[in-house]
Amino acid sequence: MTPDTGTALLVGGSSQLGFAVLTGLLGPPPRRVVLAGRPSEELWRHADQLRDLGYQVSTTQYDASLPLGGIDPLLEHLTAEHRLGLVVIAVGTMTAASFADSLAVNGLAVAVLVQALVLRMSTAGSGQLVLLSSAAAARPRRSVMAYSLGKQLADSTALLLAPAAAAAGVRVLVVRPAFVTTRMTEGLDRPALWTTPAKVASRVARAIPGHRVVVWVPRTTALAVRVLRRLPSVLVPPSLR
Ligand SMILES: NC(=O)c1ccc[n+]([C@@H]2O[C@H](COP(=O)([O-])OP(=O)(O)OC[C@H]3O[C@@H](n4cnc5c(N)ncnc54)[C@H](OP(=O)(O)O)[C@@H]3O)[C@@H](O)[C@H]2O)c1
After folding, report:
1. Is the model more confident about 38 or about 143?
2. Ligand 1 atom having least distance to the Cα of 39
3. For 58-109, where are the alpha helices, taking DSSP H only?
């Protein structure tokens, strides 16, 4: 499924989940693809994989720990020749050095990014933005408090911008996975609601033509969150508090 044929941008270019979602939406080459992120083996490997498939790939720096989310090098890289057709934002961390860093990276930086990219696409009058949020944005957990609060800020920013963006021809999709088997969750016990990057990617690809604004993966996560919100905390398993 190709939402638009302009440049495709993945912010969090090393993310396994982001890469699965991006490749599920790219459509056939040739197409310009920009991978943004901190330099890493994973990011270069993703760039090489896309080049081998025939895409025109460039990479650019993006460090969400920098003041105001380090968005300037990314915006400078997106020159006028890059009309953004697809943006996937996959930035997130559960291992930030401090509470403040976690809020800054998961929350403020991503909110700033979403706002800037939606504005840019709205000015051009087309595009699809996919934000990899989390079920934790809808039901913050004390055990991952700063991560949850950051995700809430990013998720709410995207949802608040979505109606005006749609009126300007831009679609926003907020994806709320539960537990996905990626580098982020390596070594952790799988809870009941777990899924894979391929399943998230497939659900996202199916949600886009329906102009959905929020999608949960697995689907039952939405129901589980509604139930957990209503339960007295003593009845909630400690791992879900
Ligand atoms: N895995 C899950 O269970 C799960 C569940 C719900 C939501 N999500 C969300 O899905 C997205 C992708 O996660 P993933 O599972 O694919 O994990 P991942 O591989 O750890 O991806 C996280 C991405 O965020 C980037 N990032 C972290 N800190 C950054 C910073 N300061 N500046 C720039 N980039 C930074 C990482 O880049 P580096 O390589 O430079 O660190 C990486 O590209 C995240 O937003 C995550 O919160 C994941």
Report:
1. 38
2. 40
3. 72-77, 99-102
Q: 92 CB less than 6 Å from ligand 1?
A: yes
Instruction: Enumerate domains of the chain plus CATH numbers.
Output: 7-231 (3.40.50.720)
The residue with tokens 């992120």 is 37
Please report which helix (H) or strand (E) contains residue 24, including its range.
helix 16-25
Tell me what percent of the residues of the chain surpass a pLDDT of 70.
98
Peptide bond into 177 cis (omega under 30): no
Q: With beta carbons less than 8 A apart as the criterion, state whether 154 and 137 touch.
A: yes
Residue whose Cα lies nearest atom 39 of ligand 1: it is 14
Whether 147 is catalytic is yes
- 113 touches 71 (CB < 8 A): yes
Rg (CA), the chain: 17
**3-state secondary structure (DSSP) of residue 177:** strand
7 ligand 1 Cβ < 6 A: no
